[in-house]
Amino acid sequence: MLTAQSKFPTDWHGWAELLPQRRTTAAVNGKRRVPWTVVGAGLTGLACARRLGELHPGQEILLLDARIVGAAASGRNSGFVVATSHFPGDTELRGIDNYRRINRINQQGLELLSRQVAQNKIDCQWARQGFYHTAVGEMAQREQGNFLRYLEKLKVEHEPLDRATLQALLGTEYYRTGTLIGDGALVQPAALVHGLADTLPNNVSLHENSAVLEIDEGKPLRLRLDNAEITTDKLILATNYEATRLGFLRSYIVGSTLAGSFTRVLTQAERDSLGSLGEWGAISLHSGGATLRLTQDHRISIRNTAEYHGSRLLTDAQLSRRQVTHRNAFEKRFPQLKQVPFEFFWSGVEGITRNGTNFFGRQRNNIYLAGGYNGSGVSRGTAFGNAIADYASGVDSSTVSDCLASAPAAWMPPRPLLDVAAFFTVRSRFRGVGLDR
Question: What pLDDT does residue 95 have?
Fold first, then answer.
């Protein structure tokens, strides 16, 4: 018997605040008997349930989430749908085949989402225009050289950019150098997951505010919730770092808490002071550097803090203090917009591992799991969700093989040593970040 923690705290911050309120689905109740249950209705769980619905049209697929759709990491990330991952360091000395494998998974997720957004007419500000990798300080500028060699070796289309070009495009002279990767998409992440949830196949039943509290590992499996008991033949966990609440991966994954802010909507004059692009995304070439967006609805989003906070969201008071860091970074990049206030703030938790790997496969007794994306979960999580549905259904594919080839996760010590190790693991991302923060 596996027993979970019963509380799944959340707040209403994030990209969902920028959207009209969505009607949530009812919590599951009573006794249910289904062939398939998916726990977690983020990008991985939504992709998994959608694929199961396609593979098994005559069977009911139950999709459960402890919160509401978009309240966890899938609706709180910065909205970059990555095709080509950045692996810091001199990639000439490391396994390039592994990078190709990971990028194939990214590409599969990008293509899946691109099709689903188009076919279901999901209004989520989808813009497949690529994004910028930028550098200011010495470490990040040195990483630009590593990054260019890596892209050339993988034959990824890209364009190196100098300071003047970046200023003309983005409206800031702050960046010294950068690279445009033309493939990849920008998206409003909460709108994306809302749209995916609202267009699931008819044989998928979504229930929000439905936390699984216990798993009885018999045959069939039995799940206990507050007001329901579910009997299921196969269970797929798509809960990322929160798999630890159900007794899985406890020594292998933790949550890192990130925080960011949105400006109010920019006026036309303020938008005219920026560069030539109406929308863009910029990711720092330093792993601890700032991530920025100019969104389709004319806001600037900035995220530049990450910390170990016990895998929890930040309180409003803590978020207000983090805004000092956001404000400093914003005004350094856009001094012409010093008068523009922040209107919203948010925090989100990403699952991280010591060695940056992912999890995929059968855990035990018809329980399957996919997760652990280390901050790259929009495209990769979608591909993993689709592939774990195939794998649990006995369907082979090249993406299943690529996901199964994920390296074993490095072990982390139990608490309280885990908290110390996690704190320093997250903090190490900011070593030498300097001006890139």
Answer: 84
